[in-house]
Amino acid sequence: MKELKIEPTGAAGWRVWFSSEENPVLVARHHWVGVDFDGTLARNDNIGHCQPPYPLGEPIPEMMARVKSLLATGITVKIFTARACEPQNVPIIQDWTERNGLGRLEVTNLKDFNLIRFYDDRAIVATFKNQSKDDNL
Asked: d(Cα 97, Cα 67) in Å, to the nearest integer?
């Protein structure tokens, strides 16, 4: 995973090249980037991972570097995880992010219209273009 190219655009936010194969994305100051926790930011192959108390894995260096580069420019990063369904897990994950040099990041399981990018190890990526009523589905 290559380091992100990020250019400030003044008050508007940043121009971010999330991939060398894509055009840059304007990330406004109100936008945020979501990062899944298990299997994306933290390893999920640790002993007992799938059994209570569901221990947290070690950091994944490549994604940690990507998150640090986003945070260093001022872009908001939130941990997006199903673990947040149980509120007692939120401070545990925040402690982990703080211990691992990311600061105390917001942890959520809710999307909103300001989520501009999402990193996940299990999501299926699909891109849809606007279709006219004449297009076949």
From this structure: 11
Q: Could you say which architecture CATH assigns to the domain 32-119?
A: 3-Layer(aba) Sandwich (3.40)
pTM, full prediction: 0.85
DSSP assignment letter at 11: G
Domain locations along the chain: 32-119
CB neighbours of residue 43 within 10 Å: 14
Cβ-contact 106, 71 below 8 angstroms: no
The string of DSSP codes covering 36-101 is -TBTTTB-S-STTTTSTT-----B-HHHHHHHHHHHHHT-EEEEE-GGGGSTTHHHHHHHHHHHTT
Q: How far apart are CA 46 and CA 96, in angstroms?
A: 15
- For 77-109, how does the pLDDT look when each residue is reduced to its tens digit (9 = 90+)? 999 999 999 999 999 999 999 999 999 999 999
